[in-house]
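Pilot study result, target chain (315 residues):
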Amino acid sequence: MYQVSDQTNRLAVVTGANSGTGKQAATRLAAAGATVVLAVRNLDKGAQARADILAAVADARLELRELDLADLSSVQRFAADLVADATPIDLLVNNAGVMAPPSRMLTADGFELQLGTNFLGPFALTVRLLPALLAAPAPRVATMASSMANIGRIAFEDLNWDRRRFVPYLAYGQSKLADLLLARQLADISSARGWSLISTAAHPGFTRTNLQSAGASLGRSTPRRSVPENWLTRRFSQDVSTGTEPLLYAVTDPDAANGGYYGPGGAGGMIGATHVVRTPRSARRSDAERLWHRAEELTGVRLADAVSPGRDASG
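Predicted structure:
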């Protein structure tokens, strides 16, 4: 098992911390000494996750806060409260997401659900939290992508799937490619401005979590799975403890590079120990910059409003 380095006196924010890779990441960061903000949409489920983490890590320092990435007003409230605390944020783990709902659904702001939850919400959160991140001596932002980013294409003329026939997995692939572009553009911005912030991306391969059922079950009376469970998927999948390790490596390891991308290194990139992952050709730098500006337009959250061009890690 990957050993997270000492995180004592560091503050980590983990989205989607009530289950799956988010809960596992929060548990292991807390065990390594970090104070962890559990950012969750459902506070009841978050409270249960908090109890579970305390049962595993008795001295865990945890804060439970409400965050719905599918609602930009919730993102604004969450970020404003954290920034107002005037406590530097050392680690931001953009983990929460939704996969392959059966039909085109919309966020509170009218965005296609996967685009809004997986990309626009984390984008707005990251930019709004930059003042607190840049107040930390060596801040990290790790964003969860997916191997499905390899099939993604950024349709700038129809990001929201208003004009095309909705295809759940293609929409998911677009949102996860957008996450890769978010991580890459933030890394480039940090380098250009001389920040100490490191921006990375990770993917969990095929990790057994409720992600495969939560999205597919939306709007249905009985639960469904987006990927069938059989001997093949059991053989080429892994448990959540292993599947979370690329994300933990990306956000804590001293060797994780700015702009780096990490995922499983075995069996088609679906299982195994953490390795450097080749970024797909579709993750072009020109698209990263263009998408960043488009996200600013769509969300109304702008880098120029969050930090001045000359701002560095020392403020």
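One observation from the pilot: The chain is about 40% helix and 15% strand. A full batch analysis is planned for the follow-on phase.
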